[in-house]
């Protein structure tokens, strides 16, 4: 399934070579340059972007480092297969938001979350501090007072999941949460529980995560986190099945920002 759901504009690059890399990267991710395809030559690309050869070469080096391109003697610059892309690179994730999120992206995101977040919740139940519990409760309060389809609700949801990762005490889990923050925020915006019953279900299971962590119940925290992720994926599938256009969504916040 590759149908586009929504495009979420991200921040623009601050240098010529970074902007060229972003533009080519988005084109690759969107499929305008398919896997195995050779990019146009230097002369064509420098004319297309209005940059010098050194700027273009720096852009290509950036994309090679991120796994999107490879350079071969007597062949040129070729798009690599999707499996080689560094999906934990912040730019690559941002470019997916620029290119448009499809069901495959959402499924892949849900799968990595299921591999990490339930365990993070279990660790949080064993290691949480009073400050961690206070942050979890603040996140729940924000979700309760914000409209379900608002940016504030999605940001409250995101803050809760990042607080769980932080409470786990595991530096790798914290880092994963920070890296995929923009993708999580986009995911939460897309799966907004607009129906009253959906909203109550979302709030109930998020509260169960908080209660289980506060109560030191690792098993309950694991189960509640897994249910939250599965429930979100079910709402995504309903959105993907809809023939109507996705609503406009505000640009993602800068990494590390909480609105």
From TrEMBL:
Compositionally biased spans, kind Low complexity: 240-259
Region (Disordered): 236-259
Origin: domain of life: Bacteria
SUPFAM superfamilies per the UniProt record, alphabetical: GntR ligand-binding domain-like, Winged helix' DNA-binding domain
Annotated ranges, domain HTH gntR-type: 14-82
One GO MF term attached to the UniProt entry: DNA binding
SMART domains named among the record's database cross-references: FCD, HTH_GNTR
Keywords of the record: DNA-binding, Transcription, Transcription regulation
Record-given protein name: Transcriptional regulator
Protein source organism: Bradyrhizobium lablabi
